[in-house]
């Protein structure tokens, strides 16, 4: 799925803009990493790609301007978008396999989601969920209560859900934040597999060394694009300038996220801005 952002801005109240005139063109099947300091606008950028926040400008996915679509058309586009976030968007009371199977519900309307949720997965979906957990190295956890899993295991469940959903666009927000180096490599390879199968892959990272493994790197600073190009052309001095941030833009809660951009409680299997808006 091709992605086009044209002069996109997001402002929360009277504060500094979270995004300020961002323009990006991402080809179908491309993969890129997005980096930047806390408060640079990375998470807000991801939320515009699912119409999760009010924005000006144009956000075009697969030739459709998200901010001009009606609810039915918007759901159809969102079904083609898969996300992995730091909060995982999992239902802790459910078995891991059921959370993976919920990838089938992404982008459905609230009533359709609830009906499918209570109906339960069919044999085909259950088989795909088991296969997906196997691909992320957790076949034995299919019946385990998701809330009892470690943070790294829950991250892998969220990635396995993408394999069931089979999206055309993958948005991964810090997908390696809660996993050890070995698991990080497994998750990375799984995301690359999705990309090799044709999905466009956009990953939000704090780890610049890992971001340099992508063919294209986009750096945000103060809500603007400060660099867009091959990672080898991004010098250390320029990178240092990108990571020097105006203190007024730093999030007050200290966790690297602006509280104003956080999501509400998702629907079962729903990803903020994908199934619950």
Automatic annotation (TrEMBL):
GO terms for molecular function: ATP binding; ATP hydrolysis activity; transmembrane transporter activity. Residues 3-247 form the ABC transporter domain. GO terms for cellular component: plasma membrane. It comes from the Bacteria. Residues 245-277 are annotated as: Disordered. Keywords: ATP-binding, Nucleotide-binding. Coiled coil: none annotated. Pfam families: ABC_tran. SMART domains: AAA (SM00382). The keyword ATP-binding applies. This is ABC-type phosphate/phosphonate transport system ATPase component.
């Amino acid at each position: 799925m091709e992605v086009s952002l044209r002069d996109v801005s997001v402002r929360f109240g009277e504060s500094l803009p979270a995004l300020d005139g961002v323009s990006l063109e991402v080809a179908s099947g491309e993969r890129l990493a997005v980096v930047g300091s806390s408060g640079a606008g990375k998470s807000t950028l991801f939320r515009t790609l699912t119409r999760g926040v009010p924005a000006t400008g144009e956000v075009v996915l697969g030739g459709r301007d998200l901010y001009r679509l009606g609810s039915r058309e918007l759901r159809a586009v969102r079904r083609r978008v898969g996300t992995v976030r730091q909060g995982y968007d999992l239902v802790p009371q459910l078995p891991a396999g059921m959370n993976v199977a919920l990838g089938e519900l992404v982008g459905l309307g609230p009533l359709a989601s609830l009906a499918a949720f209570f109906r339960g997965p069919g044999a085909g979906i259950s088989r795909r969920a088991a296969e997906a957990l196997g691909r992320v190295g957790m076949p034995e956890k299919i019946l385990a209560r998701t809330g009892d899993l470690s943070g790294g295991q829950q991250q892998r469940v969220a990635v396995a859900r993408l394999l069931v959903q089979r999206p055309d666009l993958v948005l991964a927000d810090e997908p390696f934040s809660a996993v050890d180096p070995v698991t990080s490599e497994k998750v990375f390879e799984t995301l690359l597999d999705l990309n090799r199968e044709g999905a466009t892959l956009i990953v939000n990272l704090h780890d610049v060394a890992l971001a340099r493994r992508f063919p294209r790197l986009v750096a945000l600073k103060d809500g603007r694009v400060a660099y867009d190009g091959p990672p080898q052309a991004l010098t250390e001095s320029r990178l240092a300038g990108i990571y020097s941030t105006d203190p007024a833009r730093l999030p007050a809660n200290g966790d690297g996220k602006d509280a104003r951009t956080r999501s509400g409680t998702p629907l079962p299997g729903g990803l903020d801005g994908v199934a619950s808006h």
